[in-house]
């Protein structure tokens, strides 16, 4: 299974592909089909984009000298299994460098395997600042959490960067009869003062006066809208439950 997400970057897009390869005991047909699909998805994107592959490759990559140009020296296992050979072969053919091999959790409390991998294009490997596994994080899985630090300049929409500095008025108060009548009187008085304006006055200036009178009347009679404060959903009960679950997991390990 291969899924991906595309992040828009300033100089190039960042494409993160998440994979879940067939296990070691699966048939060669299933493994061949997976890597054919992965290669098609990988080649679908232009070469100048940054492509990161991560997930459960179910591959034990060994320390064979022939693999070191691709995997370097980061490996727990001495010898590669069939999935490991397939993973390194794909990395060599498609030119990504395997920057790190994570360590999943113990399946039986004793055995540790390195079957989760993160791969990145060789030309982009300097963008990876740090990567490590966190054995204490509880992710409801028998794998350890892996966190990678990536440095790249993203493109930000100009509209999203503009801070909204406008005032939002509490217009719901107009549903109250007394407030509505006072607001109407305030508006009439202010517009009555504008009737004496000189006809030769600049139209833009006149519009600014009208707009300011309306805003002043609304602010005085209706007030500003009060944003609703949402209560935090992650409360003490959630913390206590996670502590109990973590304690039970550590006892099981």
Give an overview in words:
There is one protein chain. The protein has 253 residues and is α+β, with helices and mostly antiparallel strands. The protein has two domains: 2-150, Endonuclease/exonuclease/phosphatase (Deoxyribonuclease I, Chain A, 4-Layer Sandwich), CATH 3.60.10.10; 165-253, no CATH class. It contains seven helices and seven strands, in the order ββαβααββββαααα. The protein has helices spanning 28-44, 68-71, 82-94, 158-161, 177-194, 203-221, 236-252, and strands at 2-7, 14-20, 50-56, 96-102, 116-121, 128-134, 145-150. It has a five-stranded mixed sheet with strand order 1-2-3-5-4. It has a two-stranded antiparallel ribbon with strand order 6-7. Strand 2, helix 1 and strand 3 form a beta-alpha-beta unit. The chain is elongated and about 90 Å long. The model is unreliable at 100-109 (pLDDT under 50).
Task: Provide keyphrases for this structure.
253 residues, alpha+beta, Deoxyribonuclease I, Chain A, 2 domains, 5-stranded mixed β-sheet, two-stranded antiparallel ribbon, 18% strand
